[in-house]
Amino acid sequence: MTDAAPLPPSRLFFQSRVRRPRMAKAEGVYVWDQQGRRYLDGSSGAMVSNIGHSDPRVLDAMRRQMEQGTFGYRLHFETEAAERLADMTCALAPEGFEKVFFVSGGSEAVEGAIKLARQWAWATEQRSRWKVISRTPSYHGSTLGALALSGYRPLTEPFEAMMRPMPKVPAPRAWLDGLPMDDPATGAHYAAMLEAKILEEGPETVLAFIQEPVGGASTGALVPPAGYMEAVREICTRHGVLLIHDEVMSGGGRTGRFWGGDNWNAAPDLIAVSKGYGAGYAPLGAVTAHDRIVQPVLASGGFPHGHTYAGNPLACAAGVAVLEVIEQDGLLANASRIGEVLKARLQALAQRFPFIGDVRGLGLLLAFEMVSDRETRAPLPKNLDAYERLVDLAYAEGLIVYSRRSRGTEGDHILVCPPMISTEAHVDEIIEKLTTALTRFAAEAGLPA
Ligand code: PMP
């Protein structure tokens, strides 16, 4: 431990609302700051570092790629790294997904997916189809196209004048709406709202529906109710509407399957992925789609889209190594197994703290939502800022968790999403630190504990 020297003022304005310590080292599930304090990365950053930090196999692969060259412009050279990553990605993707388009992040992946969908409509003479229906709440990215899909008013409102408004349907928040999760009628109820919206807009104008198979930051690990995914697939097919899965957070293995959507028998037409795909080793994302979408686009002259860094060999080499680690170390199975253990422990916490209203998620994409009344599911008073306060209290214990307002301007949920390499001992440590943070929060907020 060294004495904490005051940090010089930062010129960055994309950082946290409070000043955080500087990172010195990251390894496995832990991150250390420059004062030598250790933090358990209980949210894998922003659900990114799925295989843990500084895996030597990924670092070696990146080093080897750096020695060969860090950049080869995709219009000038093919690279082994990009070709291999595309092969591996298609092998994991639903049947008929034969081509991949690389990008550098989640917003780019979503933009690429909706533009590829539109290019397909253009190429197949369905030019009246341009609307992309999405859900509220949702988050699909910060660039204007992806933001137009994002059902989260505090982020979208200032920019609405600059965006084409896109139709929205309610996300299937069965718990919040007081509906049973395992009754197929619940899934049918939410899917019917999608169909009603398609009919209201005019099916000939609707290009696609985009959803997160397991919700991320905006909904707090929302798992769809029984029957929903299958019904959505059927409705999209019947109306000629493409189904896009935003797997930016749920893809890459976190739910226990490589794609979150693989937890249901309802394959999408297009997939956008990032976060756990590069697992924090490099800015990386991808769009992949069924050949019935890609081939007409290629036949019509190609996809006029791209970013300079797309297919960057260093990022792709990292991606290849990340996928190899997931496979070699059986991390999908571990995410399922440890996810069950962690979820059960979070449910036990809900027994102890009555203000934990719901514990949900799949694999290691887990969250809990806080309420002032479990029966009515009324949120905690807004001025408690529980979502921020709990993050800070956990941080003080050396535990990193991720949080958002769950209902637009009110409501609070906390995502607990440690890396897929986590063990039972890590779960113990998470629960111990979280218990302390929750106890402190309850005391200062005057809540029962
Ligand atoms: N889609 C989803 C589901 C996400 O969770 C995010 C990031 N939180 C994005 C898109 C945007 O990704 P990025 O921040 O990498 O642009």
From TrEMBL:
KW Metal-binding (keyword) present: no
Pfam families: Aminotran_3
Name of the protein in its database record: Adenosylmethionine-8-amino-7-oxononanoate aminotransferase
CDD domains from the UniProt entry: OAT_like (cd00610)
Listed cofactors: pyridoxal 5'-phosphate
GO molecular function: pyridoxal phosphate binding; transaminase activity
Family the entry assigns: Belongs to the class-III pyridoxal-phosphate-dependent aminotransferase family.
UniProt organism field: Albimonas pacifica
Record key words, sorted: Aminotransferase, Pyridoxal phosphate, Transferase
InterPro entries registered for this protein in UniProt: Aminotrans_3, Aminotrans_3_PPA_site, PyrdxlP-dep_Trfase, PyrdxlP-dep_Trfase_major, PyrdxlP-dep_Trfase_small
